[in-house]
């Protein structure tokens, strides 16, 4: 189950983020839609892959000055933790994953943002 958070900044910037993994997190068709090469690795090495999950990660694009969620694929292969993330859908640039979702600074003004849990999603 994923969480829905609302992030607020005193400058007025606010956004809602569906973070985490839903029921589709282990759906290989869905994984293939975002990460076709990694899906192949998972399917052909199924016995060596300890875990895999597609989840929504909170990311920040410095160029677009926005925070939003992107599908990220996490799996373990050859005792290596692999994290694959997409690119910014707007500028096609590289985004930074916010690993600590409680410590997020505003993409507009760089101040600490208030996080509020407003719901759950499947
Ligand atoms: Zn961008
Ligand atoms: Zn701000």
Describe this structure in words.
With 122 residues, the protein is mainly beta. The chain has helices at residues 28-34, 36-44; strands spanning 2-8, 14-19, 52-61, 66-77, 80-85, 96-97, 114-121. The chain has a 4-stranded antiparallel sheet with strand order 5-4-3-6, covered by helices on one side. Strands 2-1-7 form a 3-stranded antiparallel sheet, with no helix packed on it. Helix 1 crosses helix 2. The longest helix has 9 residues, at 36-44. The structure holds zinc ion (2 copies).
Looking across the biggest beta sheet, what order are the strands in? Answer: 5-4-3-6
| Quaternary | single chain
How many strands, which pairing sense, and closed or not: the largest β-sheet?
4 strands, antiparallel
What is the share of helical residues?
A: 10-25%
Distance between the ends? 5 Å
Enumerate how many helices there are, as a single number: 2
**SSE order:** EEHHEEEEE
Write down how many β-strands occur, each being a DSSP E stretch of 2 or more residues.
Answer: 7
């Amino acid at each position: 189950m994923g969480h829905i958070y609302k992030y607020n900044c005193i400058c007025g910037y606010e956004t809602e983020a569906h973070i985490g993994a839903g029921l589709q997190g282990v759906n290989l068709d869905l994984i293939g839609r975002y990460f076709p090469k990694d899906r192949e690795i998972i399917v052909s090495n199924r016995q060596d892959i300890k875990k895999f999950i597609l989840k929504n990660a909170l990311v920040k694009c410095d160029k677009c000055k926005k925070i939003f969620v992107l599908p990220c694929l996490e799996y373990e292969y050859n005792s290596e933790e692999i994290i694959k993330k997409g690119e910014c859908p707007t500028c096609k640039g590289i985004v930074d994953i916010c690993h600590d979702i409680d410590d997020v600074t505003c993409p507009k003004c760089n101040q600490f943002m208030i996080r509020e849990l407003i719901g759950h999603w499947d």
